[in-house]
Amino acid sequence: MTTAQEERRTPERRPEQPPATAGRRRVLGSPGRALGAAATAVREAPRRPMVLATALALVSLLAYATVRHFVGTSMVDMIVYRAEGAAVAHGQDLYALRVTEWNLPATYPPFAAMLFVPTTWFGIGVLRVAITAGNIALLGLLAALSFKLVGWPGRQLRPVGVVLVAGLGVWLEPVFTTLRYGQINLALACLILWDLTRPDGRRSKGIAIGIAAGIKLTPGLFAVYLLITGRVRAAFTAGLTFLATFALGAAVLPDATYGFWTKYLYDSTRVGKTVIVDNQSVRGAVARLLHAENPGLTATLLGAAVAVAGLAVAAWAHRSAPWAPRAEAWGVCAAAVTAVLISPISWTHHWVWCVPMLVLLAAEAAHERSRPAAVRRMRWRPILGATVLGFLSFAMWIVPHKGDLDEHLPALHQLPASVYPVIGVCFLAVAALRVRARRRAAGEPLVRLPQQRPAEGESQKAPAAR
Question: How far is C-alpha 134 from the chain's CA centre?
Fold first, then answer.
């Protein structure tokens, strides 16, 4: 059996268990069945690891609640969302509102504001508890979807992993900040990853990505990823769904829709300052490096280069599936990292994609010793450890950044102030190196051109050593 086959192999099924495909059909049938399947998976998980994971998760969440109490949680973004919903419900000017002591405006499309209307039915205190609990549940769901994407660990251990991620993942800075601000990043990531882990043959594939793009524009890059990897129908489904969200917003809020798409979308001052350490995009890193609020053409060209390179790596990884396990997982994570890197402003909490990234790196580390020497040049455990430390470091908040200090950071502070862009670019480089190593080990060309065909009598299968 080849190494790639060994890494794809799932634990042996007991005879009485139904086929995996049938289980998936039942799970996707209704939310009730999905919850039932989740409960069954928890019951079938190994008892001792499950008990230990649950105890560790509860201790971690209790510690998180204590820290949260003392550091304070303004949940300002939740308050903005609620104000947007109230503006829609009461027929007020959506983009004229200013709330909280920071005078924060609405920055999402009108379709998103329409979805926030139900938040007006509850008081702030109830929303704080509900959104915090909901985000922790979404963190667990994101972990489950990440495990499904990566195909690791085995099915019996996945409930244990979900509990551990839901309990310990709150300490990852992007997740911690998402919870602190009451953000919707985890919900968007779950929508996108749910869509991408569905079979390509499903006619509705792409709808969730289109909805996510209708709420916040950056998920639209995943439609591009679907398109360049040959899943044209899913890409067009995502695009048409996005247009449907636009049409719905225009029908319900015509003035707000006109204002957003002709004026407010292009006013970056409504979102925030580019140069501050909160902004962990390529443009933010360049602005701090140049000590300029507006980094101009330099940042634009560098962002464009990262976009092209990142999407190329994502497509290359996806198309290397015959020779590399977890190829789609690398493609999806590369696309996600690219989306966050090239956005003009990517707040630290936008990097909740660290969860599938870390799951993927953990899977590579778990299989490190089983690989042949030809593809064992990278040491995945140090790479995983460094990435975990980066997302646990809170490095950008440690450097002096009050007032206008963000714009005048010394050279020694540039790396910690832009730690996520550095991690993101390194991740794309590692993804490219992994694909290159796998293709070379399989004796395949680095890029198969359309006119290339196997010679007559030549086997189209990859060699055994992978």
Answer: 17
Say how many residues make up the chain.
466
Q: Where are the beta strands (DSSP E) in 37-92?
A: none
User: What b-and-e string marks burial along 92-129, b requiring 16 or more CB atoms within 10 Å of the CB?
Assistant: eebbebebeeeebbbbbbbbbbbbbeebbeeeeeebbe
Identify the three-state secondary structure at position 152.
coil
Global pTM value: 0.87
Give the pLDDT score at 452: 43
pLDDT digits (tens, 9 = 90+) for 256-315: 999 999 999 988 888 889 999 999 999 999 999 999 999 999 999 999 999 999 999 999
pLDDT of 189 > 70? The answer is: yes
What is the share, in percent, of the chain residues with pLDDT greater than 70? Answer: 86
Over 70: is that where the pLDDT of 5 sits?
Answer: no
CA 115 to chain centre: 21
375 closest CA partner among 316, 433, 309, 303? 433
Q: Which residues have a Cβ under 8 Å from the Cβ of 38 and sit 6 or more positions away?
A: 159
d(CA 380, CA 370): 12
Cα 114 to chain centroid, rounded: 24
Question: Which amino acid type is present at position 355?
Answer: V
